[in-house]
Amino acid sequence: MLRKTRLFTPGPTPLLPAAQNAIAAADMHHRTAEFREIFTRTLSDLKTFIGTKNDVLILASSGSGAMEAAVSNLTSPGEKVVVLTAGKFGERWRDLAKAFNCQIELIEVPYGQTFDLGTIKSKLDGARVLYMQATETSTGARHDVKAIAALLKGTDALFVVDAITGLGTTHFEVDDWGIDILIGGSQKAVMIPPGLAYLSVSERAWQRMETAKQPRYYFDLRKERKSQTKGESAFTPATALIAGLAASLDYIRRAGNGNLADGRDALIHNAETSAAMVRAGAQALGLKLFAPTCPAAAVTAILAPAGVDSSAMVKEFRERFAMVVANGQGEMKGKLFRIAHLGYYDYLDAIGVIGALEHVLLKVAPSHKFELGAGVRAVQEVFAGQFAEAASV
Ligand SMILES: *Cc1c(COP(=O)(O)O)cnc(C)c1O
User: What is the domain class of 17-255 according to CATH?
Assistant: First the structure.
């Protein structure tokens, strides 16, 4: 049979057709009224999407560029920062803080788990910034941003959240909770290609930048703010991706019947429902989730059956069905595989990926016992449950 390529990776994610068209059509110079209009509108829409009154900036980089900016703009060498890590992306905060010679208070838990609030509380003394992920994409775990925000209330520590896979999959009250910098990336829930990072910046964070002494140039947020307030950027912006982001935010607004915040909530609900379907499907096939106590709506990490290399499963998905699922990262390579559901996924995608998973298991894990169709049926039951709920309103 024909095989259509399908991405189930937690970035890049499948592209929204309307955004692809906007990207292809974006033939403009960036110091023009045409671009300033689209850029200003997109920044304003992003504020609504993130759910904040704080300034929002867009950078021409992958998400890690904004992570670097959140270290270089907020700290001085030798300052104490708290870094929470439970996977590959937490380790990126650690490595960044190290590169900028911060004094790191590392709170590390095993892959697949989340943090103990008491431990965090006991390490905050003298901390200038706390860095964490909203969802740890390498393990499929969701962290409790709201509870950690509450621990930080009344302290001097700024709160920086990598929500690169958290945005569009998780609810945040950025201003109420006091998130000083919240970071997103283009290749995740907003359904466009890699190349943009965006972030919200609080008044407290702007104040800290006045005294922070790290060297910075390309990612100097104060310089960007000056330009972006005027609808421009300090350097050449990624014009085509910004046109794509504008189209994507319009699509999300339509999903909310003309209200962008409602559309964002619909996108989050879509991710939550897709995640519930994938978890139910995998478990009905006798597979174990890697982060069962704190599962993220962005991505589900599933352990390969005992004695089976998940790399062989990933390969079979690709060769047999042209489905791209993600392997484990770092120490989890070969042990688990990850199925994304952030952004442009629907019910039939869940049916497709779990249906394919059944065939992959038959081939790669012949001694793993399950009933053909059990996974697909579990996905259908979650869908039917949602439908009944909607009908009873
Ligand atoms: C994708 C991702 C990033 C950013 O990685 P880039 O390759 O720089 O885009 C950072 N944190 C998390 C949690 C991610 O999922």
Answer: alpha beta
Answer yes or no: are the C-beta atoms of 133 and 188 closer than 8 Å.
no
For ligand 1, the distance from its centroid to the CA atom of residue 13, given in whole angstroms, is 12
Q: Which long-range contacts (CB under 8 A, 24 or more apart) does 105-110 make?
A: 105/80, 105/81, 107/82, 107/83, 109/85, 110/86
* Domain spans of the chain, in order of start: 6-12+260-392, 17-255
In Å, how far from its chain's centre is CA 336?
19
Q: Which of the 8 DSSP states describes residue 146?
A: H
Structure confidence at residue 391 (pLDDT): 53
CA-wise closest residue to 296 among 188, 198, 386, 375 = 188
CB atoms within 10 A of CB 58: 24
Report yes or no: 383 and 276 within 8 Å, Cβ to Cβ. no
- Output the CA 64–ligand 1 centroid distance in Å: 6
Query: What is the chain's percent helix, strand, coil content, to nearest 5?
Result: 45, 15, 40
Cα–ligand 1 centroid distance for 177 (angstroms): 23
The residues lining ligand 1, judged by C-beta closer than 6 Å to any ligand atom, are 10-11, 62-64, 89, 133, 137, 162, 164-165, 185, 194
Rounded to two decimals, the pTM is 0.97
Interatomic CA distance for residues 144 and 17, integer angstroms: 33
For domain 6-12+260-392, the CATH class is: alpha beta
Calculate how far, in angstroms, residue 188's C-alpha sits from the geometric centre of ligand 1.
9
Angle at 107 between CA 101 and CA 109, to 5 degrees: 135
Nearest residue to 350 via CA among 324, 377, 379:
379
**3-state SS, residue 30:** coil
Write the DSSP symbol of residue 297: S
User: What is the pLDDT confidence band of residue 393, given thresholds at 50, 70 and 90?
Assistant: very low
Ligand 1 centroid to Cα of residue 125, in Å, is: 29
The residue whose CB lies within 8 Å of the most ligand 1 atoms, and thus the one to mutate among 162, 187, 188, 190, is: 162
Q: What percent of the chain has pLDDT over 70?
A: 98
Query: Which atom of ligand 1 lies nearest, measured to the CA of 194?
Result: 9
Q: What percent of the chain is predicted at pLDDT more than 90?
A: 97
- Region of 143 on the Ramachandran plot (φ > 0 left; ψ -120 to 50 alpha; else beta): beta
